[in-house]
Amino acid sequence: MKILYGMQKPDEGTITVDGDQVSFSTPADAIARGIGMVHQHFMLADNLTVLENIVLGAEKLHGIGAKARRRIKELSDAYSLGVRPDVLVEELGVADRQRVEILKVLYRGARTLILDEPTAVLVPQEVGALFDNLRELKSEGLTVIFISHKLGEVLSVADDITVIRRGTTVGTADPRTTTSKQLAELMVGSELPSPETEESTVTDIATLDLAAVRLTQTDLDGIERIILDDITLTIHQGEVLGIAGVEGNGQSELVEAIMGIRRPDSGTITLGDADISHAPTRHRREEGIGYIPEDRHRHGLLLEAPLWENRMLGHITERPNSRGGLLDIKAARADTERIVEVYDVRTPGIDVTAASLSGGNQQKLIVGREMSHAPKLLIAAHPTRGVDVGAQAQIWDQIRRARREGLAVLLISADLDELIGLSDTLRVMYRGKLVADADPATVTPEELGSAMTGAATGHLEHTEDPAPGAAPAAPGADGTQSEDDTR
């Protein structure tokens, strides 16, 4: 898709658009031929409005005033996107941001849309709304390339399926006659891996304890907002505690509070027997907290640094990275070689930059780095977001192994099947509060999704046959979160 969007040049082969053979040197070339791409990591400026984000770089089309606003409104209405031009992007939830990205591409005249893992950050209700948008686009004559490893979604939305494995087209399929099992065998050569865990390994020994943790933040306009509201939870040795929630409801801030990146206004954080509420981040790392960040590019890697330097990040004072207060480059390099082998990081060597690896291999390097320091607690924030099926299975295996070896794991994920499959205990965050809990053995993704939008609280009990018309829906009329709901 990067080649089709002009971000990379192919070594050989041809691309034909509307019967014409084309060659793209930049994304501008692709846009000029009606091809637009919505990246998995959104490309929006948080401090600008929706209108400003849409016209940015395309000012020559309709200016930046009334004419641009009219065009945005026309496109939003035509494709039922429900975009609000004057809202700051930082105030939008992920589903709304995704619609802004789609509208940004349409505004530039795209007739072919590339969507890279578009459902990775959406709850089930939002996925349905997105698919309605895609069907609307298709009915207007647009072409959509939908990239996903979620087979049920592919089968429900696609008209044709092409399967790529290790950079090669291995087959095509007709969604009307193909089963998930057949598609999985094309993708990975066997049945798709499952996140399901074995028997419980939970002990009664508490590893991490949060008591009445509260965090506030003062906005630029001087208004104080509650980000974390009386968060109390305990994670035991051998336990995976899963946190479900629409992004922007306090999950990131909860992780930052545990890591020492943010200082809570009140409450205590205890690791083992030690109160670490006021300890610096490095001390928490040295005491045994491993951290797989939600955004590997912004918080997990130095993209232009070689792999062996990335292996040292976050653990600079610990062996094998240092000895006697001095960096031990030789030992760090040797251990990077070990991580590459043990965690199957596919790379030509440890001197290449992190940017040269695929997302899945970047993630495996991070997991290997964090697991190599025998942590007591592993914080895994969206550990398999944007990685291929093979890497996903390996990361799940590492989390299961960590659990068997007595680690406490805090798992935050937008993949509800992953959360349900890996977790021993499930909690739901909404507007900075833990509002619901569920038994992973009985809860469904739809029930979790309902609690994530604030429609259900308390203990989620599974009901076999919901009454007609009682399916959970998000507060917004189109099944998406409003501006207030996502704060």
From TrEMBL:
GO MF entry, a single one: ATP hydrolysis activity
Pfam families per UniProt: ABC_tran
Alphabetized Gene3D superfamilies for the sequence: P-loop containing nucleotide triphosphate hydrolases
Low complexity bias (residue ranges): 466-479
Stretch list, region Disordered: 448-487
ABC transporter domain segment(s): 1-191, 213-456
Source superkingdom: Bacteria
Entry-linked PROSITE patterns: ABC_TRANSPORTER_1, ABC_TRANSPORTER_2
Keywords, sorted A to Z: ATP-binding, Nucleotide-binding, Repeat, Transport
Coiled-coil annotated spans: none
Listed name of the protein: Heme ABC transporter ATP-binding protein
Native organism: Streptomyces uncialis
